[in-house]
Write a structure and sequence with these properties.
Blueprint lengths: L2 H17 L16 E6 L4 H8 L7 E6 L10 H12 L4 E7 L9 H10 L4 H9 L4 H5 L5 H13 L10 E6 L6 E5 L5
Parallel strand pairs: 1-2, 1-3, 3-4
Antiparallel strand pairs: 4-5
């Protein structure tokens, strides 16, 4: 299947979805029913598994996804989204939920950079980034231990200068096969 076909298939489905009023069963507000915001991984195995494993339905939580469920910068878009959920969208708790067997676990930058070069990114561009003070290898590096990664992200969120006191920040790791949750940080105890 080529990309044009993929897009066309989506648009054809969408037209029928709207015409048949299928959207009506998903109607909710912008405020999460369970008053929580979740940072999790973009892994495809979690798309339906994570909400089912947490007993979440449409409208129950704000869900933010990225590679590895990482807060890699205290003033990046992930942290901004969490703060907006807390201050503007009625989220009262935060959960960081990473998973076992994550592609970011043990990710090394060199193979990613090699792939970039193979796909046409000039080495000169990478050199310019390095010269500009961007450590591309550090930026692309994953994590070595999922438990430590979750604890680190929880720590950044919990201790962020703009996070109000009293917001529980929990850390968990989910099994992408069974949905079993391992509690890493209980935000009620901190």
């Amino acid at each position: 299947m080529n990309n044009t076909s993929l897009l066309n298939d989506i648009l054809v489905h969408n037209q029928k979805f709207v015409e048949d009023h299928e959207y009506e069963k998903y109607e909710t507000t912008k405020f999460p029913n369970k008053k929580m915001v979740i940072l999790t991984c973009m892994d495809t195995r979690l798309l339906e598994l994570l909400p089912k494993a947490l007993n979440l339905g449409n409208g129950d939580a704000k869900i933010i996804k990225n590679a590895g469920a990482l807060v890699s910068h205290p003033f990046g878009s992930i942290m901004r989204s969490i703060l907006i959920a807390v201050y503007q969208l009625q989220a009262k708790e935060v959960m960081v939920i990473a998973h076992h067997d994550c592609g970011m676990s043990g990710l090394k930058a060199d193979p990613v950079i090699d792939s970039m070069i193979e796909r046409g990114i000039p080495e000169k561009t990478l050199d310019t980034l390095t010269y500009s003070g961007i450590d591309i290898k550090q930026w692309l590096h994953g994590f070595d231990n999922v438990t430590e990664s979750v604890s680190h992200s929880v720590d950044i969120i919990k201790n962020h200068p703009l996070m109000p006191e009293g917001v529980p920040v929990h850390g968990l790791v989910i099994d992408p096969k069974t949905g079993k949750l391992d509690l890493i940080v209980n935000g009620y105890e901190n």
